[in-house]
Amino acid sequence: MLETLLFFILIPIGFYWIITWFLEKKQIEGLNRKVVLITGCDSGFGRDLVFKCSDAGMPVLAACLTDSGVESLKKEAKGPGVVTPFKMDVRSDESIEAAKEIVEEITKKYGGLHGIVNNAGITGASLWDDLLNVKDYIDVMDVNLNGVVRVTHAFMHLIKKAKIVTTASVCGRVSLPLLGPYTCSKYAVEAYCDTLRIENAIFGVSVSIIEPGFFKTTLTDPKRITKVFDDIWKRTTKEKRDEYGDKVFECTKNEMITMLSQRCNKNTYLVVNAYFHALTSARPRARYPVGLDANLIYIPVSFLPAPVTDFIFAAVRIIKQFPKPAILQK
């Protein structure tokens, strides 16, 4: 009886995955006429995606935050697809408005913009919410969420019947400790992209969300995270520091640094490939969880009841023998 039940469950699932794989594998034609706009191209996923799209013959509009990012791409982008680097700050309406002239001028000969890749993002302040302030949240939101909204609104008129690809994170599916501002921004990005996908389906616009696990990039650099932790701890009042205690702070910081040093995936090309698939597949996915940790840990955990996830986090603290805050030890 059990074998029969499994047969009738697994066979349809198998057919579904085979058909889906076949449909997603088909690539759109004429990549040399599909111009894409990518934000956050100074480094990391955005920069690597510029090279991948250019190597495939796609014209690329590469928005960078810094002059050094622009100059670097001018020197190193050698693919058949023409790369046009320019400065654009996703936090500034004026900067985006100035960039519109460049984008609109170049896209005229291609009949519009094939895709927007909202890649620019920051992790911002990272530590217990109790030690953060409203500005910490505003600063992260202004890039990770408001930046996505600004860029999408500015260029949507060029992209109807095309694609929007946005970076979220597994932190947009499950809340992880010490990453409050980043997690809130990514939950909001997921909601915004779901809204875009539903509302713009009538125009034939596909909206894809990239959900990477932890990868080795400038955002997860242990030295940078150490400085962020130390700076926040130093600015915190003595009264608040005494509640937690130096031992808890150092233990927490060391655990985060160890995790980032040992568990971050070095294969960043996996994320870039997900971006590229979303841009070039005839049937892109709505969501792209990327990495073993995303697919085997964080995404499955996101579907569990809250008491279960709370138990998991509590169990981890016990197993790792995290010390109690100083105020609870008195």
Automatic annotation (TrEMBL):
Residue spans crossing the bilayer: 6-23
Gene Ontology MF: a single term: oxidoreductase activity
Keyword Repressor: no
Keyword Disulfide bond: no
PANTHER family: 17-BETA-HYDROXYSTEROID DEHYDROGENASE TYPE 6, SHORT-CHAIN DEHYDROGENASE/REDUCTASE FAMILY 9C
Species the sequence originates in: Panagrolaimus davidi
Gene Ontology biological process: steroid metabolic process
SUPFAM superfamilies found in the cross-reference section: NAD(P)-binding Rossmann-fold domains
Gene3D superfamilies (alphabetical): NAD(P)-binding Rossmann-like Domain
Keywords tagged on the record: Membrane, Oxidoreductase, Transmembrane, Transmembrane helix
Protein name (Swiss-Prot/TrEMBL): Uncharacterized protein
InterPro entries from the UniProt entry: NAD(P)-bd_dom_sf, Sc_DH/Rdtase_CS, SDR_fam
